[in-house]
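Write out this protein's structure.
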Amino acid sequence: MNNILWSKGLEDKSEYQLAHTAHQSSMYEIIRELNNCKNHIIWIRNNAVDLDAIALLIDKVENPKKIVITDGDMSPGDYKIKTIKNLVDSDKITKMYFQNYNPIDPLLEDSKISYFPIGLDLHTEETKIGNNPYCKYELLLKMRNIPKTINKALIDFKATPRSDFRLSILKEAQNNNNITILNERMKICELYKYYSKYKFIVCAEGGGLDTHRHYEAWLAGCCVLTHLTPLENMYDEFATIYIDDFSTITEEDLDEYWDATADKRTTENVIPKFKYSYWYNK
């Protein structure tokens, strides 16, 4: 189970990888991660300090490596251009995978740079399920096998409107009878009961471009309705429909969306994409 797509680290979790998202790493920690990384892939927390350190140390690396950067709200455009350029130009780096990938600078369109999904949140205390981090993954898998009986879209972020996209969607959806809006934040197990019934989950950018909600919905067998995003190429691997105006969604539209995403919702399509290796081998 240690290969399940989780925003903290990769297959072999180190103390550094499991540290809090806001953890300020020392240079010693970064050097230790470089020395201990396996399979020529190093995971770095998505903050400017840690990647800056890698850029400073890169000439001391013996073998070429891939870097996976997740766990945080930053986009690659938030990093120092000098840091990105040093890594792109280095023959010690073969690929960099960023969470919240948004190529706002031409440098970020380099073939060495690509996207990496945020995946599941298996660490936040208030949304944990059971004593094992992977209990959440197993519960969502069970949701896949429950027939979706409600042909409506569900919005569960009214209590956490962390972006203009969410506020705009809430305004558009408020009078649409084909969309259910939950007014309060629910305990995670209660929320997942909704995911087991609703065919569609509305997801939108929050603190960062990518959100855990997308992956919870896809794993539970739902289709995601969202806005246009720089992550479109990544989201297109799953059951995703992009909506211009949520006020106009009809029951007929939902029927069409459900049929159009049938292949993308299959277990055969979804489960392999919940493994780290699927993404860092692309």
